[in-house]
Amino acid sequence: MASEKNLFEETGRVLDLCSLDEKLEATEQLYKRWQQGMLLQDSITLPKAIGQAGHPEKPQLVPPRKLKRRRLGTPMGHASMLHAIAHIEFNAINLALDAVYRFREMPTEYYDDWLRIADEERYHFQLVQGRLKQLGYDYGDFPAHNGLWETAQQTADDVLLRMGLVPRILEARGLDVNPGIMEKLREIGDEESQPILEVILRDEVGHVKAGTVWFRYLCEQRGLDSEETFESLVREKMSYAIRGPFYEPGRVEAGFSDREMAFLQQLEQENRA
């Protein structure tokens, strides 16, 4: 078909977009075109070395230590928390797109998962952005940090590393903190944000589960024990990121084993010591 284009080239094009509105629209259309069979999975070029994914001029990206801590009970603090969530969701769009663009020897079902996840992250971002606008703010009104994308850069050479650490550590952290954020927003009377965070929590369990599925698939392909490999990767690369409390129902639904949960609990205690 003349209308067929290459999946990886098209995903790379969307990944590079800096205009917020263009990226959101293109992400949605990319997934629709994949579902309609309009994108070919053959790789005709090599992926570019990972750089900075396309993002709008704002928010200003600063080191985490330079982000101001604001009281949630103030209008600006309230908006700042929602802005932080929006920024995570925007980064998650780029992370999912890069998982498609960069790793080209995976089964078709892998691309089904990560294109769907990119589109769900797009939807999450738009939900939070809409809530910010109701409060008189917009995405870009507060500075943010680039930590999520920096981890993507650190895991760009190995899909096993990416699946083991980005969904199963960084995105799983979102499962842990979401219920507490909902409670804090409830305490300040923000009932309108509750259903948005409930949608995000439900979908993020599925995103972390996709990471689990493909991490274990890759371990099996390489003859590795997945639990031992997860523990060694976390200790070598991400031990600093392990903080509790853990949202065990979500993590268990997302595929964390009893041994993995016990390991995370142990590592958190070591980090506290």
In brief:
The protein has ten helices and two strands; from the N terminus they run βααβαααααααα.
What does the model show?
This protein is mainly alpha-helical. It has a single domain (5-39, 65-272), classed as Ferritin, core subunit, four-helix bundle (Ferritin). Helices cover 66% and strands 1% of the residues. It is built from 10 helices and 2 strands. The protein has helices spanning 7-16, 20-35, 75-102, 108-134, 147-154, 159-187, 194-221, 226-238, 248-253, 258-272, and strands at 5-6, 39-40. A two-stranded parallel sheet has the order 1-2. The longest helix has 29 residues, at 159-187. The protein is globular and about 50 Å long. The N and C termini lie far apart (61 Å). The relative contact order is 0.11. The mean pLDDT is 93.
The best one-word shape is globular
CATH homology-level superfamily: Ferritin, core subunit, four-helix bundle
Poorly predicted runs of 5 or more residues: none
Count of individual beta strands: 2
Integer tally of domains: 1
Percent range of helical residues: 55-70%
Query: Looking at CATH, which topology would you report?
Result: Ferritin
Radius of gyration equals: 19 Å
Biggest beta-sheet profile? 2 strands, parallel
**For the largest beta sheet, what order do the strands appear in spatially?**
1-2
Estimate the mean pLDDT confidence.
93
Question: Which properties best describe this structure?
Answer:
single chain; 273 residues; mainly alpha; Ferritin; 10 helices
